[in-house]
Amino acid sequence: MSAASPGHVIDCLQYCNVSETILRELRAGGVDAIHTTISYHEDFRETVENIVGWNTLFAEHPDLIFHGKVGGDVRRARTEGRTAVFFGLQNCSPIEDDIGLVEVCHTLGVRFMQLSYNNQSLLASGCYEREDTGITRMGREVIVEMNRLGMVIDMSHSGTRSTLEAIELSQRPIAVTHANPHRWHPVVRNKPDEVLKALAQGGGLLGFSIYPHHLKNGGACTLREFCEMVARTADLIGVAHLGIGSDLCQDQPDEVVQWMRRGRWTKEPVDAINPVVFPKQPSWFRGNVDFPGIAEGLAAVGFSPSDVAGIMGENWLRFFEQSFAPAAATSGGARQTP
Amino acid sequence: MSAASPGHVIDCLQYCNVSETILRELRAGGVDAIHTTISYHEDFRETVENIVGWNTLFAEHPDLIFHGKVGGDVRRARTEGRTAVFFGLQNCSPIEDDIGLVEVCHTLGVRFMQLSYNNQSLLASGCYEREDTGITRMGREVIVEMNRLGMVIDMSHSGTRSTLEAIELSQRPIAVTHANPHRWHPVVRNKPDEVLKALAQGGGLLGFSIYPHHLKNGGACTLREFCEMVARTADLIGVAHLGIGSDLCQDQPDEVVQWMRRGRWTKEPVDAINPVVFPKQPSWFRGNVDFPGIAEGLAAVGFSPSDVAGIMGENWLRFFEQSFAPAAATSGGARQTP
């Protein structure tokens, strides 16, 4: 793979306040595909409305974006000079208490679903609960259904035990689309080595987050520190299991981060003195135009061109190609290492 | 309290397929109040529709029933020769993921809510989950809100740890509206001594269930065996903490018990050979006309007239009077023993 023909670039988690400016930056940054969040705490009907919003964007900007549904759409995006947008849910709230809605969401183009988001859900525990008893009765059934349909289980905001059990129960590789190693920056959202190893052993992928709260030194984290952390993670679980899931929330108002944190589950008053706000991005990653700089940073810490291409998107591309088809269309839906 | 003027009679859990026949049986049985289930797995909108159904019944049969909202409505029912119908939810599905719906449901007349029904919920674990980590982050907030409003926490279908934590966290007495001692009939829905003792210490009440799966020998359980079990429970936690919550599901089709068990959370096929059906009621409790016989059975095993009156409804009446007013209207919402 020559420098003139780098691999496909995929960002496996964004939640930008999308505008034509941002869509043009996707193209300027050479981003062939993104996984965009459709819902955090929205119920089914609200999720459908958010999909309607994306459908409108697809209709308005057919020269820039289209709705990605299968792995091959990433290749098509590159060929056509557009960006394929894959839908994902950060919580299981969109399926409410109805397992039948998993298939409905898949039909609407959803390709990722987190089994829980910070809190206990009907399916799994979240990383901010005091304890975690793992996958629930309904969760076990939903994993089977997601495996059958080709919807990826994402455990980015779930607890450790729930994540380990999801890896064990799932017949197909799962993802942690946006998190970093807990050992590097020990916050509850980052993942312990035990989880990272099990994830890779199950054929799964980790997307490195560039959200400041997940970075050592927050927004002051340097590109070199970030890339060295990627290298240590490659040593731990193998470079084939690594990608990017930047968690970019460009141009979102602070009300959005309050929705993420609070949903509708708490009556605790918003702190008027110190409200929750979006943290300041690192200088080397303000938006999609900065992706080439990350590739350079990875090369600078010693990754080979093919490893850089893998981390920047080729690993996710392989994962997408494995993961989004119904189980019957793959080798029996059995777990495969890439 | 003379035999000619017994105490008020309250059945603190029914889910009958209500008809004029059943409403007339309530009167024939001298039942002054029932707590009726409005929802098992219904969401908010579906719950509202079920309330509309009851409102229609209230309009059609004002001579027989009315919507009970405060404890005093039980006394009024007796005076007017009618039955007060109190609303309850067997699951937290009606509040979806929105703590604001607790107040809305209270305004609509809901006076009981179970924090979970068999499975893990957003608030607590259910008795059929493998493990139970207790009350969740959202659950802690909802308990405060229920305490504030005057909505009773019911833990009949919850797990042991969740139930113990709910008792501990709630500032007001809670209820187990329909269950029996696990020691007497060891099924997962019945409650261990540890729970019964903590319930009573917190000022709470246990409603004895007459649903055959909760009875020793099922539908073959005799009235005497049932009443002796009540006596042993009085020895354990005190007669003041006891009432009836018959779990009567008169005239319901078997599809209803399948809804209770399965909701929308499983894709496991219904067992066509051995489908889940309602069990056969014991001969001494086929419906509301049989309540006087239970009072006689309790007297026959040695309960005093005032104890019989307490178990048949006076204990629930005191509990209703304590529990359905906003916290500010009571002595600070502090836990009280009756």
How would you summarize the topology of this molecule?
2 copies of one chain form a homodimer.
Chain A lengths: L9 E5 L5 H9 L4 E7 L4 H17 L4 E3 L4 H9 L2 E7 L10 H8 L2 E5 L22 H13 L2 E3 L5 H10 L5 E2 L16 H9 L3 E4 L14 H15 L4 E3 L9 H9 L28 H10 L4 H19 L15
Helix pairs in contact in A: 6-7, 8-10, 10-11
Total number of helices of chain A: 11
Oligomer: homodimer
Structural class of chain A, by secondary structure, is alpha/beta
Q: Mind telling me the C-alpha Rg of chain A? A: 18 Å
Low-confidence stretches of chain A: 1-5, 331-338
How many extended strands of chain A?
9
- Give the name of the CATH architecture of chain A: Alpha-Beta Barrel
N/C terminus separation of chain A: 19 Å
Strand content of chain A: 5-15%
CATH topology of chain A: the name is: TIM Barrel
